[in-house]
Amino acid sequence: MSSISVTVCDDSKMSRKAVIRAIPPELQADLHEATNGKEAIQNFSEGKADVMFLDLTMPEMDGFEVLAELKRQAARNFVFVISADIQPASQQKVMELGAVKFLKKPLDAESLKVLLHEVGII
Amino acid sequence: MNYDELTADHKDSLKELLNISMGRAACKLATMLSNEVTLTIPAVDMASPEELMKMFGDATQYYYTRQPFFGSMSGEVITQLTKKGGKTIAGNLLDLAEEDGIDTVDINCSILEVSNILSGASLRGLCEQIELDTRTQPPVMYSPEDHPIPSDKWSQAIILHVSFLVESASFETKTIICFAEDGFNVVVHALDEFI
């Protein structure tokens, strides 16, 4: 089974590590990191983001802008938003912008595994 | 230990844990105000009591509240909120229109409510995540000019700068957690365990 490219985008190193630790081994992820939205878009254009775990509040380019840019490019990758901004309005906005699912911080590894099963990635 | 002695991982984790906590606060505020709240990226800094007193701004521009805490460590949380927008926030929270006459009591009541959410989010949220037991007392209005920070009592303070932008009004807040004795070292030790 071939690996899938995964970009974990968050300005916090601790949060990126937490997401990477939570990714189930069954995913066979080819892992990449991005510290802001610009780097995440760069990773996507280099084919490094079949799956993207995306924070919202970041410097340079935030998660909403990343989603809007991916939508503009008609991207067909899976974007999971993982954020501390848990307001219903923010959750609704990211779904409208094409995110597969909104996950609140701190990320629960078991919930992520269940979700990846549900959407058929593992 | 002071802030400059913290490792990059300590600073990153402290900022991120407070970010998660303030996200919860923004959600509560949004529900209370029936408005979306935009949260800026928090900046975390530290100061001694002397540095802190110099940081307090013009009392005509800011509201201040203070809220003691105790448990695994003790100290108090001081919240600074810009007066700009305060009346609108009070109107929103108390469901009052400008023509109803929003007075100082209404505004103070709203400021205490908002600061309780912010201090609860910052301190209790942080302690919950790093598994420290802390309890807080209700906040009271505070005047730094009349009651300077007791430098013999508090040794270090974490300063959390966050702006909450509300559709109907914008206001900025600073949440300051003052630690007594070696309280900050207790937090750093808990962060080590967490990392």
Automatic annotation (TrEMBL), chain A:
Domain Response regulatory: 5-120
GO terms classed as biological process: phosphorelay signal transduction system
Residues found modified as 4-aspartylphosphate: 55
Source organism superkingdom: Bacteria
InterPro entries: Bact_response_regulator, CheY-like_superfamily, Sig_transdc_resp-reg_receiver
Annotated SUPFAM superfamilies: CheY-like (SSF52172)
Protein name: Response regulator
Record organism: Vibrio caribbeanicus ATCC BAA-2122
Keywords, alphabetical: Phosphoprotein
CDD domains associated with the record: REC_CheC-like
Keyword Phosphoprotein: yes
UniProt KW Phosphoprotein keyword: yes
